[in-house]
């Protein structure tokens, strides 16, 4: 049985979700640099990845994590990763299709919205 995350945990977890999203985007940016020949190396995704992971760890040490929240955070990470992948493939069409990445992002965003209580609220 799935429980929705309460509003107190949702407000304290927004920072965690944003950091997970940034970590996913930066991780995919580093992976794109290695796999897509058109993408040039930049030090900024590496710096942002290190800082976001460090901030996520500090947040983990400070605040207790609700039961369902790690799955929502992982979904936010994958939204960032697949979202950046779709953006990169839109910029460089020779890298492949972005259809799968867009579908995954939309499904994960719908699931996150449902878990956080923004979509399909129970009456």
Explain this structure.
This protein is mostly helical. It has one domain. Helix content is 73%, strand content 0%. It starts with 6 loop residues before the first helix and ends in a 7-residue tail after the last helix.
State mean pLDDT (0 to 100 scale).
86
Low-confidence runs (pLDDT<50, min 5 residues)?
none
Count of individual beta strands: 0
Q: Count the domains.
A: 1
Order of helices and strands: HHHH
Shape: flat
- State the major sheet: none
Protein name: YijD family membrane protein
Keywords: Membrane, Transmembrane, Transmembrane helix
Transmembrane segments: 39-57, 69-87, 99-117
Pfam family, one: DUF1422
Entry keywords:
mainly alpha; flat; transmembrane helix; 123 residues
Give a quick rundown of the structure:
This protein is mainly alpha-helical and 123 residues long.
List the helices and strands and how they pair.
Elements (H helix, E strand, L loop, with lengths): L6 H29 L7 H20 L6 H23 L7 H18 L7
Helix pairs in contact: 1-2, 1-3, 3-4
Keywords: Membrane, Transmembrane, Transmembrane helix
Protein name: YijD family membrane protein
Pfam families: DUF1422
